[in-house]
Amino acid sequence: MDHDDYLLKKSIFRIGEVSSVDGREISVRVDQEKNRSHILYRGELLSNVSVGGYVKLIKGFNSLIGKIEKEYIKEDKSTSQSPEYTQPEERFIRFLSVKMLGYFSGDKYRKGIKELPLIGNECVLLDLDEYKKIHSFAQEKKSTIRLGSLMTDERVSIDISVDRLFASHIGIFGNTGSGKSHTLATLYKNLFQKFGNQMKFQENARFILFDFNGEYANATTITPLKKVYNLSTKSDQADKIQLLSEDILTPELFFILASATEKTQQPFIRRALKLYGKAQEARDPLEYTKGILKNKLKQILKLGNWGLADLTLGYMESILDHQDDLRSNLGWFSSTPCFYIDRVQPSKRVYADNPSEFDLAIPETKFYQALEAMTVDKDFISWITKFLYIQLIDDVLSNRAQNEHVAPAINKLKSLTKEFSKVFSIPTDIGNTSLWEEGKPLAVINMDKVSTSMKKLIPLLLSYKYYQEHKDKKLAEVTSSLNIIIDEAHNILSYDSTRENQEWKDFRLETFEEIIKEGRKFGVFLTIASQRPSDISATIISQLHNYLIHRLINNRDLEMVEKAIAYLDKISIESLPILPAGACVLSGIVADLPLILQVDRLSEEEQPESQTIALTESWLDKSTEEGEQTTEEEGEPTDYRR
């Protein structure tokens, strides 16, 4: 740039000079001749400064960047009597209130306050090149993806660093219809488009998307490199997720499945799981289990207390699969009192007060014969429930537990069995139970046809399982990553939910709060999307690293966002209720300054199935539609009253 060009640019781009400095708050006095909406430079019409725009403050050889937050005028009283003023408006001085954001180091923009300007420093407009630089958040093109363009200037592309975005916790918020599902799909579609064909990406990157409404289940949404699990609690023919028995035998998880209380039911479940563990360690687990039950049967049949005997035999009946009456050759002699057995060979009634004969007759009972025919249940929850009954028999016989205290936990587990077995399978032979298929790093869990209770359990169970697997690795061995993506996250991260007991809610929130606090160290990252951020735990919201916030109207949601997100400035917060569909405020560690972004629109086949239906397409007859189209083409107004 020659000397004349420099002087021309300086004279045209100059706005005014700094008049006061109060921390990060800077006041700029605008030159009188710059009180125009536009500036003409080399045949181009440039927008002049306005609220929400950026300016450069020149302090010697340093270029400092600030954002205009407000503007105001003051009357210039010192010269109000001067005859030089020919127009009344010239007696007023325009001021800009500027908040400092960053600075230029060489030709690169840096976020943060290196130094503050001095009174008298020049304030100038940014040229297009500088404007693009402050909105360029990554220098290495190989590790960036495009999200969209600046809403106020579509010439400015918003490219963001893959490392700074996806190696972080992300929050996408916005009212229904604001475009948050579309933004979520765009983020991960662009990521897979850039890295999907890389072998290392397919080996080391894992993504799991919990889809509550079936929006991402079609073959082309986000990427074809995915395995979709279409789950259902209404059908036995739907997909199932394979788990290992160890995945749900963690005591904390099992307490949740059984809704176990802390003081009585949880210690009981620990004892039952310990008993199950011993049986599994035996040479023949089934025979070991039969042996325990045979001993308990002998102990019950020798009881002299009918109430206790009847109760424990009832538990035994719950364990055994039977069609016949297991008590048909048993009786109770109240005079003694004791059991008797009606033998067939020889035909004789044997009483428990005759131990030698009674012991020989026990194998002839229907109970004993059912025990001999006992097999391992195909359904794991049903099988483990039997060990709870075995432990309950032992506890009742030894007077360690009361039936009314423990039975509710077993009943809860039994009620869960039917739905659990429809979405999960636990194979007896340990093979490949991975959630992901080879070459397909994304697993989509479609829960559109799953009951409400299971919608809460599935994300918790899988997130806990895979987080623990990453956590168990040594930090030096963490080479793979896991991104957990939860759409409609208020369904499972709500703090105010009253649909489950307090222990369940505490464990659920503690699990995800630990992931968001510690997961980064183990390569586990969380992406959540929700239309009600105020319903989500404040701890989770405040620990997110990056935010994409679409239109929000509810006051509680706006207050939550303002309190939890320190990155947002006043202008960004005030713009949230009036953002158009597809536009969002981008803020966080990925962006050097908050900005309003217009997210790129996906093609129809790539979009999630979350569009608002067109009512008139289903209301109007075909002939009516054609007639309206002709009328509109002729430029005549359509009369909808007929």
Outline the low-pLDDT stretches. Answer: 631-642
Structural class: alpha/beta
Strands of the biggest beta sheet: in what spatial order? 11-10-25-24-23-12-22-21-13-20-14
What profile does the largest beta sheet have?
11 strands, mixed
Provide a count of the helices.
22
Radius of gyration over all CA atoms, rounded? 35 Å
Q: What is the number of E strands? A: 25
In quaternary terms, these chains amount to single chain
Share in helix: 25-40%
Give the end-to-end Cα distance, rounded to a whole number of Å: 68 Å
Average of per-residue pLDDT values: 84
Report the sheet-strand fraction: 15-25%
What sort of overall outline do the alpha carbons produce when their principal axes are compared? elongated
Tags for this entry?
642 residues, alpha/beta, eleven-stranded mixed β-sheet, six-stranded antiparallel β-barrel, 22 helices, elongated, disordered C terminus
Question: Can you describe what's shown?
Answer:
The protein is an alpha/beta fold and 642 residues long. It contains 22 helices and 25 strands. An eleven-stranded mixed sheet has the order 11-10-25-24-23-12-22-21-13-20-14. Strand 5 and strand 6 (62-75) form a beta hairpin. Helix 9 (285-301) runs antiparallel to helix 12 (366-372). It starts with a helix and ends in a 9-residue tail after the last helix. The model is unreliable at 631-642 (pLDDT under 50).
